[in-house]
Fold these 3 entries.
Entry 1:
Amino acid sequence: MLSHVDAGNQPTMVDVSGKAVTQRTAHARVRVILPPVIRAAFVDGELRTPKGPVFQTAIIAGTMAAKRTHELIPFCHPIGLDACRLEIVLAADGDVVIDCTTRVEHRTGVEMEALTGASVAALTIYDMCKALSHDILITDLRLISKTGGKSDFGATVTAQEQGTSR
């Protein structure tokens, strides 16, 4: 049975009141493939557009989105994140790799917050770079790991996802 469907087959929020409060973490990753015209605009690993510093703005936007995930995803519980960290790097292959890690002491996990943070950071990069080109691809959004709760999860990370090749 799906967790967000009740016995009467109606959508519902999961009741977490009986769960133990534990430390829960999540790590999500997304890749942004930029066309050559945008890659050429990088100077010393940084990209600035008329809208401002791209990576720094994306970090702020991703953090704000992670904190507001419950406002976007209908059955996510509102939680106060203890930590949210976004790292954005220009990989050796020229793609942008965004990692979002989240942590909370709570009865429910933070996977959706990490995924939302990574997604919005990628969308912010798109928004800030679209004046240079619309040929931007956001790809490979995935949960890399989670801890706490019923079970832990760790994805198999390929060399491409590690940013070593494409």
Entry 2:
Amino acid sequence: MTNLQNKTEMTRRRFIGASAVATFGFQVVPSRVFGANSRLAVAGIGAGGKGRADVSGAAAAGADIVALCDVDESRAAGMFKAHPKAKRFPDFRVMLEKIGKSIDACTISTPDHTHAAATSMAMKMGKHCYTQKPLTHNVYEARHLTRLAKRTGVTTQMGNQAHAGEPIRRAVELVRAGIIGNVTEAHIWTNRPIWPQGMKARPAKADVPNGLDWDMWLGPAPHRPYGKGYVPFAWRGWWDFGTGALGDMACHIMDMAWWSLELGSPTRVSARHGGNTGESAPNWAVIDYQFGYRGSRPPVKLTWYDGKKDGVQNAPSLEATGGVEMVAKGRKGYGSMLVGDKGRMFFNRSSTQWMITGRDADEVKQIEANTPKTLPRTEGNYVEWVNAATGNGHKPLSRFEIAGPFTEMVLLGNLAIRAGEPVQWDAEALRSTNSDKANRHVRREYRSGWKL
């Protein structure tokens, strides 16, 4: 073997060994006790792209950035310069093994297909984890991280940042207070994708750019020759690496509806779409999720819209919206609408200027004035995570015990797209009861050395 092959094989064996610990039972050593002046030692797994925001957000929240890991030196160059004292690595497995004792926590800001592998290893080593949305690449991985969070007890947070903001938290309180009565429908839309989707063939083989470790970038995904159109942004449209427009945006903009209505897992998911292939997510999709009774609450149908059909952005019909034209345009290209038996609520996660129609304005004002703030407020999702990890705050409200089931629900839409047929879902068994085609995509095959 060459030195590189030896290094890869050793790392593979170590990674498999670390994964086996979770299979046969383990005990995570709690992180150190933090004093008044001590800081959370954070390693950034993914320092370019979204990693810049996550590492910088953790630092601004009071964390000490002690290491940075990225497979693309050019993309990470700015963060390497911004944190010159941080140790640098191209392989997070090597980083965690070599300097794991000096790391308290990790931000994971890699492409979707590597989220679970990096997060799982870090959690098993007792590291607090902040992982970008969608939490995982597939439904099985979301369940895996949910269970692992419970077993390890580390502080976790998914990076759907608006979850920590005032608009969503206040809207959740008001919906639960009955501001539009009993809700039976939710409509959520986005203008994504803004990258190519619907591709039938892979890009032609090309030279790997200088500074990019392509094999490490592939991680658990099947080996593919490098081709233009994968990195640094358009990987989102390829099933091997991304989760399409749904995975990219739904963990942001479905959040208020799923949280406020306590939807849990759907019983049935169906999809209409255009341009889906075996390689790539579709150009557009309309996905229907059916939820049953939750206690005394009525069943809910949630419909997701993405992309453009015949050149027009997908969105609820004017009939569904009660004639409100703003929905078709979408503020900032995305939004949501809840339909209750006493009115409709139009909501955008970045604004507290929501709109209620179909209910007397004085009644709306009275409910808003009399509904207490029952959810904790925070200075942001990074502050919420860092404070919780250091013992200085409440548990993050988008921790994996919550974000895991939410991600499962979101990604079931991709099962319906890829199956090409309606999916009846058994959440407890983590499988479809009617679609073998859907069950093929509940989990993926992992390359040697990357299995969970």
Entry 3:
Amino acid sequence: MPPLEARVELLRPFTRSWVGLHTRLVTRQTRVARTSSLEDPTPGFALLGARAGIDLTGQRRLRIAVDNLLDRYYYEHLSVGNFPGQGRNLHVSLAVAF
């Protein structure tokens, strides 16, 4: 059974840009399968991220995001061997419309 999860995002728009913070909150899970299974109890975790975007022109948009901003060590409930989730990572994208 997956744990309870919530996602919250706050965005602040400007004329040609926006900035935002987002979080992912996951509760601990102690209810696991009693028969043969790879499940084990897992702790809860909270991840924080930031995003920003700007319209460079009417046809070009630049977006930047940082996930797991605080570089929190965590693992998902059904992660085999409790393999850790992604650490801090950066995404940059440029969208061009034709």
